[in-house]
UniProtKB/TrEMBL annotation:
<dbReference type="InterPro" id="IPR011009">
    <property type="entry name" value="Kinase-like_dom_sf"/>
</dbReference>
<protein>
    <submittedName>
        <fullName>Phosphotransferase</fullName>
    </submittedName>
</protein>
<keyword id="KW-0808">Transferase</keyword>
<dbReference type="Pfam" id="PF01636">
    <property type="entry name" value="APH"/>
</dbReference>
<dbReference type="InterPro" id="IPR002575">
    <property type="entry name" value="Aminoglycoside_PTrfase"/>
</dbReference>
<feature type="domain" description="Aminoglycoside phosphotransferase">
    <location>
        <begin position="510"/>
        <end position="724"/>
    </location>
</feature>
<dbReference type="GO" id="GO:0016740">
    <property type="term" value="F:transferase activity"/>
</dbReference>
């Protein structure tokens, strides 16, 4: 870059470039088109260009990779700069219009021809340029004053700082980076400042100003750039307002990325002392850095993240900046082919492997083989995308709308085309990019996001969908038929082979169900029938080594309950000699009970309690001829010592520590088996379900309730099963914010109405509540302490504390 003698005009007044193309064509001569520029070349000139560019670009690319060059790191600093002169001398002269200047008004705007180059200028921009040229004063004096010289130094991007001795308006004292001294000397020579003979500091004298400068070699170009940026800091709200409609797409996404990084930091750390009022945030445009000041108020409370995010989005939306894509570099043809195969494989695994899916269409960049990497992360809402999305439209079987795969993450329940939008998963980034994670460690970056518009026939419009597919030139990449069976993974493929051998199925579909259990649960579709496959990996109310024994007990219990008229999904039997294990884990195949699971309050408590009452009543009338090897007392001997261990160890969490201290006196008597024995005698013994929770109850289309999943079944006092249900329906499973222990007594009374509790059970209800509550508290605490993130906000910790609070409020220590 040459030395700027005088800035005749500088300002961001133009519209964005109209074109984003680089291409060649050949008409009366050869053209290189780059955005709004066209260069006309003869054949000899073109061959010159190709030869020189090929050699120099290869050489420069190697240096870029070797030095890990980043844009702007040494901008105009003449430090660590690189110039490639290899074969730089062109062999041919300019052939077409070497002396021409032509300005033309055309159908697509104004054309400015300068020698063999043509610039396309929008009419609006051209009128601005013409007006500016009229106002330019070519005879205006060069910089003379203190302010003018400072402005000229900054226009030349000289690395300098104000030095001691600076005394405007008569004297300008500066420290200049050593590598810029030649440039500064040349500059002062151009603007007619005479050098002074004094050796130190160097000095130049103008008509109105003396300039003294010293050499500085300690700071880097990046240091100077940061220091210059501090002089240009503005409120970010003002910056966005000033550049409304004309902000650089890469810049706004970099700004959003910094905000998302702050959001992630606050999400993990809570209060950090940072100012969270978006109107007080600052911005350094030169370095594209958002500055989050420290708050004047030392607020130790957790930041309201939803409010912060809402205010930030209001600011962006007010300037039309909520959805702006950054620049993108498309992959080469070979990479496009590789990623197309990955798209097909991922689509088969994440979508086509599920029986609810009938068709899959691909759209957008993936359909056009225009996948690529963004120049900066594309921030869309709270999503930070490194590469192009893979856009799909997935059609769902109208009979299986309730079977949408649970691992799909709902992003938007209703888009403009009346489809729901789900995130299906990711495809690894096909190319290399900057290590954005180092710059923004609190942001979760996405590679190629597999996005799906999901068409549900019950709520969609077929004509709208067909028009949508046509508008985006979508193509179908999957249509379900008997032979198009795909699997989510290798495990599902092997399970399908196993089921074929056990039950004689023909190409069964095996689909993982994303449910809250460590056991493997799968939907199996075979021979036109739905089944549920359960792969037992963990035990419930018993030791892990007894898992195979309990599975046999569970199967026998279900079969005998069904024989007594209790409606629960049947176990599908294989041959007597069949190996009912997979990778060493027992398995059972169940008939599928259609219906819905009532996930959150308010629950149909009366119907559910009545089903439990019937399950107990048939046994009280006529005991089941089953072994009684799994007992409630064995359960007590597992969980009561575990509670004692937690109480002895204490906890760093005040809520947990307080709960343990308050429950310890209640638990103490139950450690003695002689104390438990008389209590057991008050309640009839039955084979209990063991996990009476909303997740284990299906409500069918007729409104009837069906209990299933006897993985925690045991033989013991029926009152423990009743109270287990009372606790679970009060806690509302994962909806802990909807917990309400008014449902506790309601559940007991609903059960009592169908199968009355006896007087001893009711008289000893307080002790039964203590015993079952302490066991349930201990189970929840164990699950919470074994979670990846142990903190008071953990769901299982919250449930444990809620149980303790209820016990302390409900009963007094005997």
């Amino acid at each position: 870059m040459g030395v700027i003698k005088r800035v005749l005009y500088r300002g961001d007044i133009l519209t964005r470039p109209r074109h984003r193309n680089l291409f060649l064509d050949m008409e009366e001569n050869i053209h290189i088109h780059y955005r709004d520029l066209r260069i006309e070349l003869s054949r000899n000139e073109f061959e010159d260009f190709v030869r020189t560019f090929t050699v120099q670009s290869r050489e420069l690319t190697e240096i870029i990779d070797e030095q890990n060059y980043r844009d702007g790191k040494f901008a105009n600093a003449n430090q660590n700069d690189v110039r490639i002169w290899t074969e730089s001398r062109l062999r041919s002269e300019v052939k077409y219009h070497p002396t021409r200047l032509s300005i033309e008004e055309c159908g697509d705007g104004y054309h400015i021809h300068y020698r063999n180059c043509k610039f396309l200028v929008d009419p609006e921009d051209f009128h601005r340029i013409a007006a500016l040229l009229k106002s330019v004063d070519l005879d205006a004096p060069y910089a003379e004053t203190h302010a003018d010289v400072l402005e000229l130094l900054e226009a030349n991007e000289v690395d300098f700082v104000i030095d001691e001795g600076n005394a405007p308006p008569e004297k300008l004292a500066i420290k200049v980076a050593k590598y810029h001294l030649p440039k500064v000397r040349e500059l002062f020579n151009y603007i007619k400042f005479a050098p002074d003979d004094s050796p130190s500091p160097m000095a130049y004298q103008g008509s109105q100003l003396r300039v003294e400068m010293r050499s500085e070699s300690k700071w880097s170009s990046a240091d100077y750039r940061r220091m210059r940026g501090l002089n240009e800091v503005v409120r970010i709200a003002d910056h966005l307002a000033r550049h409304q409609g004309n902000i650089d797409p890469n810049e706004i996404n970099r700004i959003k990325c910094q905000m998302l990084d702050l959001y992630g930091r606050l999400e993990h750390a809570g209060s950090t002392g940072i100012e969270t009022d978006v109107q007080k945030w600052l911005y350094d445009p030169r370095n594209m850095q958002v500055i989050f000041p420290f708050s004047q108020q030392r607020d130790t409370q957790k930041t309201d993240l939803s409010k912060l995010y809402r205010e930030w989005n209001i600011l962006l939306n007010s300037y039309g900046m909520s959805f702006i894509k950054p620049g993108k570099t498309s992959f080469d043809s070979q990479t496009q082919k590789r990623i197309q195969q990955k798209i097909q494989d991922s689509t088969n695994r994440l979508a086509a492997a599920f029986s609810a899916v009938t068709k899959i269409h691909i759209m957008g960049s993936a359909a056009r083989s225009m996948m690529g990497i963004y120049e900066v992360p594309f921030i869309h809402g709270k999503l930070a995308k490194l590469g192009s999305d893979v856009d799909l439209l997935v059609e769902i079987d109208p009979k299986r709308e309730s079977d949408i795969p649970r691992h799909w993450k709902l992003y938007n329940p209703k888009a403009s085309n009346h489809c729901a939008i789900y995130h299906l998963g990711q495809i690894p980034l096909a190319g290399t990019t900057q290590n954005w994670k180092e710059q923004f460690p609190n942001v979760t970056f996405l590679d190629h996001l597999l996005d799906a518009y999901v068409y549900l026939p019950s709520s969609g419009n077929r004509q709208h969908i067909d028009a949508f597919l046509h508008r985006f030139s979508a193509r179908c990449i999957y249509e379900r038929n008997e032979n198009s069976v795909h699997y989510f993974g290798e495990q599902e493929q092997r399970l399908a082979d196993k089921l074929t051998n056990l039950f004689g199925f023909n190409k069964p579909r095996v689909e993982p169900l994303n449910v809250s259990t460590e056991n493997g649960i799968f939907l199996v579709v075979a021979n036109g029938t739905d089944y549920i496959l359960k792969l037992f990996k963990v035990s419930g109310n018993y030791r892990t080594q007894r898992l195979p024994e309990h599975v046999r007990y569970e199967q026998q219990l279900i079969e005998q309950l069904r024989a007594r008229g209790i409606s629960t999904p049947a176990v599908v039997r294989a041959g007597s000699a069949a190996d009912m294990t997979f990778d060493g884990n027992p398995l059972l195949l169940f008939e599928r009970q259609r219906g819905m699971i009532w996930k959150r309050p308010e629950y149909p408590t009366e119907r559910i309690a009545k089903v439990l009452a019937e399950l107990h009543a048939v046994q009280m009338k006529s005991p089941l001829p089953l072994p009684t090897d799994f007992t409630f007392d064995e359960l007590c001997m597992i969980w009561l010592p575990q509670f004692a261990a937690y109480a002895d160890a204490g906890s760093d969490m005040p809520e947990v520590s307080g709960a343990l201290r308050s429950l310890e006196p209640r638990c103490e008597p139950f450690h003695n088996g002689e104390f438990r024995g008389p209590l057991y005698a008050t309640s009839p013994f039955v084979h209990c379900h063991g996990d009476v929770a909303p997740k284990n109850v299906i409500i069918d289309d007729d409104g009837c309730a069906h209990l299933f999943d006897f993985n925690n079944a045991y033989y013991g006092p029926r009152i423990t099963d009743v109270l287990d249900g009372a606790f679970e329906f009060s806690l509302a499973e994962k909806y802990i914010h909807l917990a309400d222990f008014k449902r506790f007594d309601r559940f007991i009374e609903s059960y009592h109405a169908a199968n009355p509790l006896n007087d001893p059970e009711r008289n000893d209800l307080a002790r039964w509540i203590d015993l079952t509550g302490i066991i349930k508290f201990t189970k929840e605490l164990k699950a919470g302490l074994e979670a990846n993130r142990v903190h008071p906000e953990n769901l299982r910790i919250k449930r444990a504390v809620a149980i303790a609070n209820f016990l302390n409020h409900r009963t007094n220590i005997a």
